């Protein structure tokens, strides 16, 4: 048994021989200054010595060997070995923490990969996008068709003023609208109206303004070119207002 210390390291070596089986065993343990260590062991078949020859020295006892392993160490070496063992324990704890963090990160990565694969395999968003694009295309075509139809009806109405616009169902609806109370004609004759001749129906004169959309229309038109509201004679409105004011008792 040999224990040596050199350059901040500790080396323990032991050699034994088994005379019954003829094997020689060797064990060497080295601990470096940085905390690392190496262990080497070997067993070889040795030649048996002649029966007359006996070993000069006998093998030491196990208890004696153990006491020799502990006692000969100097105090500085013991302190260094203790520090190295503490560092080893600390590194073991840190390694355990890092392994737990690595396991948690691997679980998170696996969950994210599964979520990504599920989204990639799901065909619902692509089908919805395709369906929306088809609906948008159909709406665009319908809008274009309606625009062409409106333009066509506008051209027809420009040629023939009696033609109804697109979407109009019955012109008689506007003719039957209630326009207020009508008074007798004799009350209207009591006061001449100056604008009756200028804005008379059907004659050539100034443009008349629609009372709904305020569009200026040609005097030959009987209804508004924009909103199709029938023309209301301003002379009749003025006469009605005058007749109402005259018939009201003071």
TrEMBL record:
The keyword Metal-binding applies. Residues 34-59 are annotated as: Disordered. Gene3D superfamilies: Zinc finger, RanBP2-type. Keywords: Coiled coil, Metal-binding, Zinc, Zinc-finger. One of its GO terms (molecular function) is zinc ion binding. The keyword Metal-binding applies. It holds the Pfam family Zn_ribbon_RanBP. It comes from the Eukaryota. Residues 81-149 form a coiled coil. Residues 203-233 form the RanBP2-type domain. This is RanBP2-type domain-containing protein. The lineage of its organism: Eukaryota, Metazoa, Ecdysozoa, Arthropoda, Hexapoda.
């Amino acid at each position: 048994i040999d224990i040596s210390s050199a350059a901040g390291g500790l080396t323990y070596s032991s050699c034994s021989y088994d005379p019954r089986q003829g094997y020689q065993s060797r064990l060497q343990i080295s601990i470096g200054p940085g905390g690392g260590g190496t262990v080497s062991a070997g067993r070889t078949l040795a030649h048996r010595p002649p029966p007359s020859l006996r070993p000069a020295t006998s093998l030491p006892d196990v208890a004696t060997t153990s006491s020799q392993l502990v006692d000969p160490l100097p105090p500085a070496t013991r302190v260094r070995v203790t520090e190295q063992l503490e560092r080893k324990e600390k590194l073991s704890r840190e390694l355990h923490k890092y392994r737990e963090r690595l396991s948690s990160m691997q679980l998170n990565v696996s969950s994210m990969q599964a979520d990504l694969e599920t989204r990639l395999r799901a065909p619902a968003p692509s089908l919805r996008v395709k369906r929306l694009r088809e609906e948008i295309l159909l709406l665009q075509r319908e809008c274009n068709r309606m625009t062409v139809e409106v333009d066509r009806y506008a051209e027809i109405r420009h040629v023939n003023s009696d033609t109804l616009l697109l979407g109009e169902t019955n012109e008689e609806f506007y003719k039957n609208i209630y326009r207020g109370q009508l008074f007798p004609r004799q009350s209207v004759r009591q006061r001449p109206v100056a604008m009756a001749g200028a804005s008379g129906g059907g004659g050539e004169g100034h443009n008349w303004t629609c009372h709904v959309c305020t569009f200026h229309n040609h005097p030959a038109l009987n209804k508004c070119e924009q909103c199709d509201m029938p023309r209301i004679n301003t002379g009749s409105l003025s006469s009605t207002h005058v007749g109402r004011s005259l018939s009201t008792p003071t």
